[in-house]
Amino acid sequence: MRTFTGVGSTPLSGVGTARWYRPEADLTLPDRPDPSGVDPDAELARFESARDAAREALRLARDRAAERVGEEEAAVFEAHEQFLDDPELVGDVEDAIADGTPAEHAVSDRFAAAIERFEALDGQMAERADDLRDVRDRLLRVLLDAGADADDGTALADLGGLPAGTVLLAERLTPSDTAELDPDAVAGIATVEGGRTAHAAIIARSLSIPAVVGVGEPLREIDDGAELLVDGTDGRVVVDPDAEARAAAGGDAASAVPDRVSTADGRRIEVAANVGSEAEIGPTTERGADGIGLFRTEFLFYDREAPPSEDEQYEAVTAALSAFPDDRVVVRTLDVGGDKRVPYLDLPNETNPFLGRRGVRLSLDEHRDLFETQLRALLRAAASEHGDGLAVMFPLVSRIEEVEAAVSAVESVAADLAAAGVEHAVPELGAMIETPAAVFLADRLADRLDFLSVGTNDLTQYVMAADRENDGVADYHDPLHPAALRAIDRTASAAAGTDAWVGMCGEMAGDPALAELLVGLGLDELSMSAVTVPAVKERITEIDSADARELADEALACETRAEVRELLDLDAADAA
Ligand code: PEP
Ligand code: MG
Q1: What's 471's DSSP letter?
Q2: CA within 13 Å, CB half, 512
Q3: Ligand 1 pocket test: which of 196, 203, 331, 432 has the largest number of ligand atoms within 8 Å of its C-beta?
Q4: How far is the C-alpha of 427 from the C-alpha of 421, rounded, in Å?
Q5: Domain ranges across the chain
Q6: What mean pLDDT, rounded, does the chain reach?
Q7: Does domain 260-567 have CATH number 3.40.50.720?
Q8: pLDDT tens digits, one per residue of 332-389
Q9: Whether the CB of 506 sits within 6 Å of ligand 1
């Protein structure tokens, strides 16, 4: 029995058989034959049938992703399919074949040229280049007959069709890879790279797939076919686990659906869920969430050619409201920029995108039109059957003027709707606290708004100057550093003297081991991936508020992350 440690990402456990995903492997081309020995007609026919096979695989992948994760995520496969039918690209490959190039070399050459063209346009088109690489590799896998079987470590062509009991091992998974996985077949995921706040990890959690990320190079020592336990609670991957190891693994113990919860001494804490697509709403209700604390509307904008219409957004929001008729649904206005790219929005190409035009900055300036369309949809939804539960929050706030401008945009959209005789209402309004500037201004923000919600994924990155996606600074990107804790404390204390409630929707909120600390810091609401809702609810019922405050004070008095971790009885290696 050997144990590898990484970062527990989905706090569930699973046992299964290791299969490596190596999308780049085994796509080496054979030597180029002399053109005189190539039969162009036969090669054209091979290219055509490879396109058909790739198209069929993409449609299957699309349908699976639509069913499991949502229409918006599934649309990435439609974009890939468009490349298969792109007349210029297809024509280029056919010309090369007609000149005596075998199909696989023609695909490789002509796609390489197209990829280069996309990369040369500007940095934002890099995503399209990645899409092209994906389509090229699908075609090559068919042409080279690679990836049908993973036993020899070759690439797996079809992530959505993995056999039951697979533990998927990979260097790193992309969000679209993850969205393709069948949670009923995949017993677990372990990756060499990646952190728990990366978007692929967030999708794995929303699919309830046990996951350990960032295991590092040692993971490569595991061979295909090994029996593995993925313990996403303790961040372990165990090879050939014995009965004791299986029993000790944190399972999904608290999967019952508890009602609304209060601390042992009666302080009500709302435990809500983060939702990144309509398909996640069902599992969220099943896990007993008290509503939605973060509806990430950017998912509605991904993998398509143009922004969603006002009506589409209205439908998505009212669907969420109907799923939680008695609870609050907090919808975040569009939060793109940084690592969240949307090619058709023509986002600026910046040296430091995380310090650039992101979140509400874009909404108030170059994407004001999208902001107003979204606000129209939201104000109409606020007047729908269950609309009184709607709350709207603005991402990446750093200035009072932004909140004033956002609130006046809401007022002016309301006035336009009134003038047009359209039914509408103004929902609760709030700001995400994700920047140190917002922390320092939290008292003023709380005066102007109905609520604040702490986004620890970004707040930690900005307080600690540590990129949330960079494994090299993962030790810094931990909200248990005293500086990050003080930022949370300052926010909660600032709201405490006002009518505003204060919640947390960063990944920190979903760790049951931190619930007492967060209650002690004064948070009224915790919002998380649905999978941890039951465990956090259970933990809250055991907490005494006075003890929790004492614990928070002790944590705030600590000088180092190690001291905080020791106080909370956490392993130094766990990342929050
Ligand atoms: C956060 O930054 O903590 C947050 C919840 O927003 P996102 O992860 O979508 O950036
Ligand atoms: Mg954020």
Answers
A1: G
A2: 23
A3: 432
A4: 18
A5: 1-246, 260-567
A6: 89
A7: no
A8: 999 998 878 788 888 888 989 999 999 999 999 999 999 999 999 999 999 999 999 9
A9: yes
